[in-house]
Amino acid sequence: MKQLLILSGKGGTGKTTVAGAMVRLAEARACADCDVDAPNLHLVLDRRDKPETADYHGLPKASVDDSTCTRCGLCRDICRFGAVEQDGGFRIDARACEGCGLCEVMCPAGAISMHPEVAGELRLFSDEEQGVFSTARLKMGSGTTGLLVTEVKKRMTKSAKDIPLAILDGSPGIGCPVIASIAGVDMVLVVAEPSVSGISDMERILDTVGWHGPVRAVCVNKSDTDPEMTGLIKLRCEEVCVPYVGEIPFDPEVVRIINDGLTLADAECPAGDAVRSVFAEVMRMLGEEDI
Ligand code: SF4
Ligand code: SF4
């Protein structure tokens, strides 16, 4: 299975809009939303089938047995995350606890134990017509997003073994979930925004991907909102030898199209034409021209 990942250096560039269009154009029967903090590709793709869900357990959390605790205060003094609260007895703030287990080892009364905690919900959509779509929702205040993204990808590949092409929507930024989403993919398409910060964000994400090896390419979304910056992005791509695969103009119709449950690929407008051209170039680079 070849995997195409869509990334951007920050949110709001239109990454998910482009990812949705790529899924539609490729008629991809395997896809994943790795943006577990704010997943919304299922909305863009208008998935209405019921997903199979499963709890995702992240790092364990400490808890204090009040009946055994001698109130010595050691756990509060040694926890470097400030997760132990004193309120009459001693309690753990689960949102602050990083699950390091130090307090459990050090407690002289053996009053602390570690328990797995649900950190998110894995969701797997799968139907005959639309294929497999894997995603997850991170529980508020939970960490371990990188591990959750890895699990999302595993569930997609396991459920769609014989599918030749998968399309993944990544998280914005350059953090843990992005690194996890890059692992094992064949190509990364960066959606850049034509602004000074957009160029900086694009460079950061290209550097991040560069360490991991998949083929890289860049397209610009809302390119006509600042043609000068779009030109600079193109130039920068030439300088760092990253293929520039096209630009998508701003189109107010796009919002209406997406709200109607369609994707940019379904749009008969300059933005729709542009995304089809970007798609064709990306498929050529992936060696999937026949799609
Ligand atoms: S270290 Fe153990 S005994 Fe001491 S306050 Fe914490 S839970 Fe209680
Ligand atoms: S497990 Fe670690 S982070 Fe959590 S309360 Fe204990 S010492 Fe603090």
Report on the architecture of this protein.
By secondary structure, the protein is an alpha/beta fold. The chain has two domains: 219 residues, Rossmann fold; 57 residues, Alpha-Beta Plaits. The chain is 34% helix and 26% strand. The chain has ten helices and 13 strands. β12, α8 and β13 form a beta-alpha-beta unit. α5 runs parallel beside α6. The longest helix is centred in the C-terminal third of the chain and has 17 residues. The radius of gyration is 22 Å and the shape is elongated. The model has no long low-confidence stretch (mean pLDDT 92). The site of one iron/sulfur cluster has 13 residues, from α3. One iron/sulfur cluster binds next to α4.
